[in-house]
Automatic annotation (TrEMBL):
Cellular component annotations (GO), alphabetically ordered: cytoplasm
Pathway: Amino-acid biosynthesis; L-serine biosynthesis; L-serine from 3-phospho-D-glycerate: step 2/3
Cofactor: binding comment: Binds 1 pyridoxal phosphate per subunit.
Catalytic activity: O-phospho-L-serine + 2-oxoglutarate = 3-phosphooxypyruvate + L-glutamate; 4-(phosphooxy)-L-threonine + 2-oxoglutarate = (R)-3-hydroxy-2-oxo-4-phosphooxybutanoate + L-glutamate
Species the sequence originates in: Jeotgalibaca ciconiae
Top EC class, one word: transferase
Positions that bind L-glutamate: R39
Complexes and interactors: Homodimer.
An example Gene Ontology molecular-function term: pyridoxal phosphate binding
HAMAP family, sorted: SerC_aminotrans_5
Matches recorded under InterPro entries: Aminotrans_V_dom, Aminotrans_V_PyrdxlP_BS, Pser_aminoTfrase, PyrdxlP-dep_Trfase, PyrdxlP-dep_Trfase_major, PyrdxlP-dep_Trfase_small
Residue ranges annotated for the Aminotransferase class V domain, each copy included: 2-343
Protein name per Swiss-Prot or TrEMBL: Phosphoserine aminotransferase
Amino acid sequence: TWNFSAGPAVLPQTVLEKAQQELLSYNDSGMSVMELSHRSSLFQNIIDEAEAHLRKLMDIPDNYKVLFIQGGASLQFAAVPMNLLKEGKAGYVISGSWGKKAYQEAAKLYGDRAIILADSSKEKHTLIPEVKEVPEDLDYIHITSNNTIEGTAYHEIPTWNDIPVVADMSSNILSANYDVRDFGVIYAGAQKNIGPAGVTIVIVREDLIKESNEIPTMLDYKTYVDSGSMYNTPPTFAIYVAKLVFEWLLDLGGVAEMVKLNQEKAGLLYKAIDESNLYASPVQTEFRSLTNIPFTIADDELTKQFLQEAQERGFVNLKGHRSVGGMRASLYNAFPLEGVQELISFMKEFENNRGA
Ligand code: PLP
């Protein structure tokens, strides 16, 4: 089976095997990771190594903190304004459905102090909109580095004076060559490129962490900084699997190598779509995502047939998001090249069978 799910997504086979081997007894302790106290030295080593690996993979400078939080990327939609908004406003670039949700959450909490700087809704998010005017009193600008549903991505991160950029990187963290120094905050739910659902990574520049008595404890970044992400029981198993995924990625040569592989995978699929008379990509070429690739067939009946035959042949979770329709192939880091090649053969066969 080739699993094209947008998330939770495929994990590397070797990581699953290692987790299986260690499932009943971690490091000869006679206990599963799931049974270890989070206060034990065994678990402390796991979380420390996970952080060290991530720092290495993303070249995270010392003045950035790495936090392990629960609640998914969706909870960060509220945590970001709570932690970052000072006297000014919060600016949002709406380049897709998730960016809109992030904005709506900030607006729910802070009303018109949350403002929209650019919005590609009219273009059905087939491009990344440009910010034309930047007000001076912004505490941060929020972007979505990769739009999971619509299949667009920032290939370069814009700078807007010295205003901190906050990025929801849930669907392309560790699969793009971004420089952490270009961001004030990066956050990402784990369940696409990092590990099982349950843990969310937040990388935050130290000087942005404010002292406040008003933020609920579990939403306050300072709580996680002061307690090493262990104010309460962290999602221990998810952090352990994330550590294994980071090790897998380091062994493969790190993010730069992964980007090359992702470019190859995505390049093959875009080429097949562009060369065909049946399939089309709805996204403007310069903004195409490497990790989420939507494609369409003009005829609804044929779309249904395509999805059904694909399913029967073991290509699963290819249906596009209900707001976009058509198909979407999500090719996160752990998705193998071979699966893309097989999908392309199937797409060609399907097209040829219809005499297109
Ligand atoms: N942001 C982006 C870009 C996403 O792709 C998703 C989920 O797919 C989310 C946020 C929501 O993440 P979570 O389910 O971890 O709250």
